[in-house]
Write a structure and sequence with these properties.
Length: about 190
C-alpha cells in the first residue's frame, strides 16, 4: 500500500476495515516514460528523501474521507476521490469516482447500491453535524435515526453536548509503529 498522509484527510467517527487502500496506482501513468511511478514528477516522500521533481505531470490529488464513513475490507480507493459524510463502501469495492454523502456503494468499479436515508433526514443530519460533538456516553437509540437526531438536537440546545476541538495530525510509520504528531494551527 502506498501511503503518504499529506494526501489524505480523514474526518471523525469513521471505520476503515483491514486491507483498505488509497492508492495512486489508479491515477494516470506515463506509459511512454522509462518509469511509471510518480517520483520523477512530484515529491512523494518526506525531505530529505525526496529530490525536487524533474518533470511536470499530473499530481497525486488529495483524497478526502468524510465523517461517519464505513469502508469495508479490501476496498481500493483512487487518489483524488472524495467520500462524503455517512457513506458506506462495501467490502472489495474499487472506488474510482466521488461517493455522495450517505450513499452505499459497492462493486468493481463501485456503483451506487442505495441511499442510506431520505433527503430530508440527510439534511437534518448534515445540519446538526453530530460528529462535531462529544456524543460518547449519551443514551441515544442510534438504530432509530429520526429519534436520535431529535435527542442530539435537545442536548445541543440545552448545552449538554460540547463541540470537539478539531486537530490535524501528521501520521508517520516508524519501523511499524504509527506515530501521530499534532500539526500546529494558525
Amino acid at each position: 500500500m502506498f501511503l503518504h498522509v499529506q494526501f489524505y484527510m480523514i474526518q471523525m467517527w469513521g471505520a476503515i476495515a483491514a486491507l483498505a487502500t488509497i492508492s495512486p496506482c489508479f491515477q494516470s501513468i506515463r506509459s511512454d516514460a522509462l518509469t511509471t511511478p510518480p517520483f520523477p514528477y512530484q515529491k512523494v516522500f518526506r525531505t530529505p528523501f525526496d529530490p525536487e521533481p524533474l518533470h511536470e505531470f499530473e499530481k497525486i490529488l488529495p483524497t478526502t474521507i468524510g465523517n461517519d464513513v464505513w469502508i469495508g475490507s479490501n476496498v481500493q480507493i483512487k487518489t483524488g476521490i472524495t467520500i462524503g459524510n455517512g457513506a458506506v463502501i462495501a467490502a472489495g469495492a474499487v472506488v474510482t469516482k466521488d461517493v455522495a454523502p450517505f450513499t452505499v456503494v459497492g462493486g468493481v468499479p463501485a456503483k451506487v447500491i442505495r441511499q442510506r436515508f431520505s433527503k430530508e433526514l440527510v439534511d437534518q443530519i448534515t445540519e446538526i453535524a453530530w460528529w462535531d460533538y462529544n456524543v460518547l456516553g449519551l443514551e441515544i437509540d442510534w438504530q432509530d435515526p429520526e429519534n436520535a437526531i431529535t435527542e442530539i438536537k435537545k442536548h445541543i440546545q440545552d448545552g449538554t453536548l460540547t463541540r470537539f476541538k478539531h486537530r490535524l495530525f501528521d501520521m508517520t510509520n516508524n519501523d511499524g509503529k504509527v506515530i501521530g504528531t499534532p500539526i500546529p494551527t494558525s
